[in-house]
Each structure stands twice: as C-alpha cells, then as structure tokens.
Amino acid sequence: MLKVQEFLKQYDGEPMRIMEVCGTHTAAISHSGIPSVISPKIRLISGPGCPVCVTVTSYIDRLVSLSMEPGCAVVSFGDLLRVKGSARSLNDARALGGQVRMVYSPMDVLKLAAAEPEKTFVFAAVGFETTAPVYALLLGEAVRAGLENIRLLTSLKTMPPVIDWVCAHQGGIDGFLAPGHVSVITGSDLFEPLARKYSIPFAVSGFEPEQILISLYALVRLRGRGVVKNLYPSVVTARGNVQAQRLVSRYFEPCGAAWRGMGVIPNSGIRLRPEFARFDAGSAELTQDRGFHSACRCGQVLTGAISPHECPLFGRACAPQTPQGACMVSTEGSCYQYYVNRRD
Amino acid sequence: MCVAMPGKVIRLDSGVAEVDFSGNRVRAQAGLVAVKPGDYVLVHAGCILQVISKQDRDSLADLFEEIEELC
Amino acid sequence: MKITMAHGSGGKATSELISRIFAANFKNPVLSAMEDAAVVPGAGTLAVTTDSFVVTPLFFPGGDIGRLSVCGTVNDLLMSGAVPQYLTCGFIIEEGAESDDLERMARSMAETAREAGVTIVAGDTKVVEGGGGVYINTSGVGFVPPGRRVSASLCREGDAVLVSGYLGEHHAAVLSARMGIENRIRSDCAPLGEAVESLFQNGVRVHALRDATRGGLATVLNEFAAASGCCIALREESLPVSAPVSGFCGILGLDPLYMGNEGKFAAVVDREDAEKALAVLKASQYGENAAVVGSVVPGEAGTLLVRTSIGGTRIVPELYGEGLPRIC
Description:
Chain A is of the alpha/beta class. Helix content of chain A is 36%, strand content 18%. Chain A has a domain at 57-157 and 240-279: 3-Layer(aba) Sandwich (Rossmann fold), CATH 3.40.50. Chain A starts with a helix and ends with a helix. Chain B has a 5-stranded antiparallel beta sheet, with no helix packed on it. Chains in contact: A-B, A-C, B-C.
C-alpha cells in the first residue's frame, strides 16, 4: 500500500482527470482526505452519481403537491427532504401541514400502508441500479399482500448512458472510478463497451480509503487503455446479481430520463411497465427542469465541465444553509463536499 | 448514491433476514440473492444486495499484483 | 392515572399532583416550605444556566427525560468551572400523560440530583392540550471557586484536546429506540462532577471545557476554535467510538463526531498536563474510555481538522442541517 500511496503522491506525469460517478465515493474521498495525499497532477472530479443532485425540479414539485393532497402521504429517504423544487422543499411542505414520512428502507412503506389502508403512500423512488431492485422487491411484496394504497413516484436512473453523455459532450476525462454498489447489481461488464468506445480505463472500486487509492493507482497506470478492472471482487462479479436484474426487468422498462442541467438523455432511466401502471404516481411527465436560480450551474458541475468554484453562486448566494441547487443540498453533492471541505 | 454495509446473517424467516452489524440487529429483505445464516452480506436500504465472498479477495496486495500484471 | 387539564387548573388536582409526585420525590427543607420563591444561602461568584429537555422516547436505554434534565443543567454548570448547588424544574405536561410515568421521571430526577450533589429548590407544573408528551426545563445555580477560569476562548497553540469517553452513545441509543434497531447501546447520560472536579483537584491546568451534547464533539471543538481564534487537529484513530456505535453509524450514514452525548465533555488542557489529565479522567467515574484526541496546532484560525487513517487531512465543518440518516 505504501508503494501505491508513494506513487500517487509523487506522480509527475501527464495531468490526469479522474471522475468518480458515485456520490458515496465523493463523500468517502472527502472524508478520508484523499485529495490531500495525491499529486496535484491527479484531479478528482465528481460526476452525476448522486440521485438527489440529478433530480429535476418538477419531480420535487410533484412530491410537494402530493404531500398536500388529502388522504395522501409522501414517504422518502432523508436526503431528499431538503431539496427545493421550483418553490418548496418537502421540509417546507411539512411545515405547511404536508404529510411527509422519512424512512430508512423503502420496505418500511409496507407497514405504513397496512396500518392506514384509507391513505395512499407515495414513495419518492429515486436512485440508480443499486436501489431499483429494492423497489422491485417492494412492489412484489405489495402485490403479495394485496396492498392497493402504495404508489411510486419514480426518478430512477441508469449509469452507462449518462457516462456516455459526459464523454461525448464534455470529454477530457482520463479515467472513471466506477460505482462499486451499482456494479454489485449490474456486474463490471456493464462498463466494457464504454471503456472500449472511448479508450478510457474504468476501475470498479470499494469505498474504504485504501480501496479508492488502489483504484486511482490502477487508473493512472492504465491511462489511455479501454479496460475495466474490477477491484472490488468480494461483491462484484462480471455479470452482477442476475436474480436482481431479472426482478427489476419484471417491473420496470427503460425510458428516457431527465437529469438536472443536462436535459433528457435517451434510455438513461427506467419506469414502471404498463402492466404495473397502477402503482405509478404520475412519474411520466416530470421532465421539466426549471425554477431554480437562473445562474445555478449544477448541470455543468455534475458533468465535470466546471468545478464548483466556477459557479457564480458558489459560496455566495449558494451555501449549505442557503442551497440554490441540489449539489449543495445533498451531503454527497459536489458543491456541498467542496464547500465544507474547502476542496479546490 | 448507495451507502451499503457488510453484516452477518443471524437467522432467516420467510424471506426476511436478521442481519448483525457489530451488535446492531436489523431486518433485511433477502429476496435478491440466496443467503443462509452465517453468511456475510452487503445491505443497502433494507435489502441484501449480495453475499460477500471471502473478504480476502479484496486483499490489497493481490489487487496490486493484478494491476501490475495488466500494465 | 392519566393527566387531564384539571391537573393544570391550579386547584385541588394540581396540588395533589404536586405533593404526591414532585414534593414526595424532591423533598428538602427549602422546597417543603412551599413558598413562592426558594430562599437559599450562597456567596461568591455565581454561575447560572437553564436548559429545556425534549426527547422521544421519554424513557430510553440508559436513562430518561428526568435524568437527562438534571445531567444537562448540572454539566453546563460544571463546564464553566462551577460547583453545582441548586436546581429548579418546570414541567410542561400534555394531557394524556401517565402519572406513573411522571412518578418514574421524578424519582429518576431525585436520584440523579443526589448523585450530582444538587438540591431541587423550586418547581412548577403546567398542563397543556396534546397527546401525552412531557417537557422539562431546569435551571441551575453553582459557585465558581476563586482562581478558576475556564473559557472556550482560552485555547492556545500546543494545548492538548481530550474527550472523556466513547462518542455518540446517547444519540445512537435514542435513535435506535425510534427506528427499531436492536442493540445494546445505552445512553451515556450522566452527571460529570467527579470527572471535572478531579481535573481541578489534581492541578491540571484546564483552559476550556464543554459538554459535547447536541451537535457532538465536532460542534464543541469548532466553537473552541472560533472563540480562541485557533486551529484544532484531531487524529482519526484516537477518537473513542465503541464497536456497536460504529456499526450503527455505518448503517445510517452518521458521523460519530456530530452525534449528541449527554455524559461526555471535551477538555483543552496545557500540553504538559495531557498525560496527567488522561490518567485522572480514566480513574474517574464515567471516564474509563477517555482519550487524548488531538491538539491545538498552527493553522487557519477557527478551523477543526482531522488527520485521517491514510495520512490525509479533512476539514470538519460545523453541522449543517439536521444530521438526517443518509441513504444516498
């Protein structure tokens, strides 16, 4: 490990720009102080891998209005509560009498729905490939238990199309720290076509500081080569969790998805299949992305086109107590992480 | 996205596992992968995503060797 | 018996509630006089503080709102270098609360007050509409012995930073109860008189003290860094966190540095006294897991840093938001 750390610290070759596409990686990198132990020639860039950050305003607006409807309650992970839509966040809605429940697992909705059958519980189903199987399990259980009062408002996204979008529109990335827990489900092969297409290395990485360091080492060493290296073999295989993939495709099908600041990217998301439409809370038309501060540059931050510092709002109008964009709201957002850790 | 933690399956009861994380017991859905008591598993949002094969597969020394071979 | 609005009327029901539950448990000559105000002796430099206690659930592993309401105020007095002496307590009770629960809280308060060496000299009860909740306010008075001066603004470069034991236990115990996570984590809720006094009695040159309650150790040390215009650096490996709390934090994505404690404090002491302070704390009640966790270093004023296990550095900011369980 010393060899790896020494290499990364002393590195003086061609500048490298490495993107981590997973918000949990972003948080782990800041938490362990990785930027302070590697050469300034290796730049770490946070990509569009925080589901809260890439959620569009019309999705939040829809959740807010559902929470205000009589007989309806919105159920969500904690992170989403602070994100503002065009006017309000779910926290604001709660203060105005909106029904919002925070849970640790989507499965907790089953208990809520069984206890109050006259109320409709809408789960704010955000996430990537990692979380999609959890929603599929939830639907399976809901069907089995005959619970008719559960709905999903989906904003479910898939990684490869957005990575493709970043490479095609932005370019300038020399390596990807591939999302470890997404890969548990999808398998590391998922990234092969992209690696080959752009001749960029992908390292599937765990989340411990040492695991991230060795993955960065691999990416620097493999610069310019279109290969995928699985460095998280205890849980990631080439093909992933096939049972989970099958379960997801039983309930969901690919669709275009709207990403904050990037617009709709074809086939970059999944939605409920028509035969399960009765579980949908109106997810389809939520592609509008408007209302946030006109100078907010979340979209470019998310794709690594600019550093958070280059946004005119960063650290001024936009700070953790007064977030203007989702990247400052989420504790995994690049702007939040750059602000609190004063990364530059 | 995707905080997930390794824990140990204590018991299994009709598709729901009781998983121990350093003395914290949590119920987790076991519908995504076959598990048995004693397995170490990765849990995300109340569901078991995968069984952890021998943790020493992530041995940094071995991974380092693999990278060197590739280069 | 359930508490009703009648118990707050000021009439017979009120006086019965007070005499049966509160006066019976808190009995002492000052309180028993039942005057409008407590008249007590005292001389010297006064320390005065007040705190209100709101917690769900009211009873949790390792404590209850009654014990909490005594510890919180007693510890605040201790952190200013004072010897706590008197407490007052105000109960705001929602109708529907169980009188048996109130009895348990009062007994717990009385026991904790005895342990902490303070006398409850005045009290008040109000009943409001609601669903059985109980809120307690306590105020405390203590006296600062001559020559003692501790303040958040007195940290100096080179000083050692200690913490009196495992972090995050109260927060984890209460949150576990709320979220249905089973574990053996107990709240650390405790009066810290013995630990604090023993530092002074053993001649440790104490510069700053603060109990690491809401917002955790990170909040307290950020306050020290700001008030003293200094930079504090912690060593990640030296932070005392028990294995169950560490596991609990992993599940919910919480950071023990920000988690609330009700029986832990941070002490900034002269560098030369660091080892003595550690030995004294370890020998004191509730202090067996005390640790030297860092020091005041040259660097940007008002900053708290952590040196991580891989030799990196990260800034630990003040807490933003509510510290919600994180999934993504």
